[in-house]
Amino acid sequence: MTAPAPMEALLVEQLPDEPGWQFEPKWDGFRCIAVRHEEGVEMWSKSGKPLGRYFPEVLAMLEGLRHSDFILDGELIIETDAGLSFDALQMRLHPAESRVRKLATETPARLMTFDLLALGGRDLTDAPLLERRSALARFVSEEDADDLLLSPATAQRERALDWLARSGGALDGVIGKRVDDRYYSGERTMVKVKQHRTADCVVGGFRYDQAGSAMASLLLGLYDDQGKLDHVGFCSSFSAAEKKRWTPELEGLVEPPGFTGSRPDKASRWARDRVSEWRPLKPEIVVEVLYDQVTSGRFRHGTRLLRRRPDKRPDQCRMEQLRHPLTPAELRNLLRP
Length: 337
Fold this sequence. Notes:
The protein is of the alpha+beta class and about 325 residues long. It has helices at about 55-65, 85-90, 95-105, 130-145, 155-165, 240-250, 330-335, and strands at about 10, 20-25, 30-35, 40-45, 70-75, 80, 85, 110-120, 120-125, 150, 170-180, 190-195, 195-210, 215-225, 230-235, 280, 285-290, 295, 300, 305-310. The chain is built from seven helices and 20 strands. A hairpin with a 2-residue loop joins strand 3 and strand 4.
């Protein structure tokens, strides 16, 4: 069986400020469509790839539910002492079954549900969100399974704005849905708002373009508690003319070691074929960048340059900037509303 394509969200600048909307946290996990039917249970990713073999503990939990015919839309999450861990989810995508099962025991995943698409042979996708949400709440309550969670939801924009203010770690933003909308499979009919933050970073290195003639990206660093400069991400949002203007200045600052803590020597885990060769720089240039999400002390996505900061010393650019206010206790309150 092939799962329905998940309904998606359009990125917008602000949450709707009008009646008829429901808001939910946008969880920092793996989107998952879970299907149970006569043949068993299947779990599908947002891209349509099977997830069951990577999360056997969630598969077993779904197989043990009393309901035997359903389709759930949700997010796979892994909670650790430090909060939700996207890295722990990434580690599950391992080819060795023994490794996956070991991790499933050490760092078990849970399914955070936010929609119910079918139940008992009845297709619910044409039903309005309010009806689907009510059915989902009953479903989760009746099952009473520790690893099957119901995502918080609110019609209060103020509460949603509070979630948004605390996003960037466990939360990836806020989703808005019209309460009278059906489930539009594969369409961007929801809205999402992300909390974009800024950080002042040291330029600890750069990479050339493929021709080797101009800068392609700046490598960004922040100082840790031991005074070491850790590589935290990159910025490549430049026009061709801007890259050429930057290059002579950068070439005049080339000097090892560049980063004295974690380094960009290895290819990205999200793009393993990315060229890792780079040039180290004296830690003199400070820039302010715009970013959205942080994973294990690094920007998950590329950042956008806002401005240079000649008024700020490099040693003032510290990792504390990436630590966000959603504490483990606050996260537990969200996970167990």
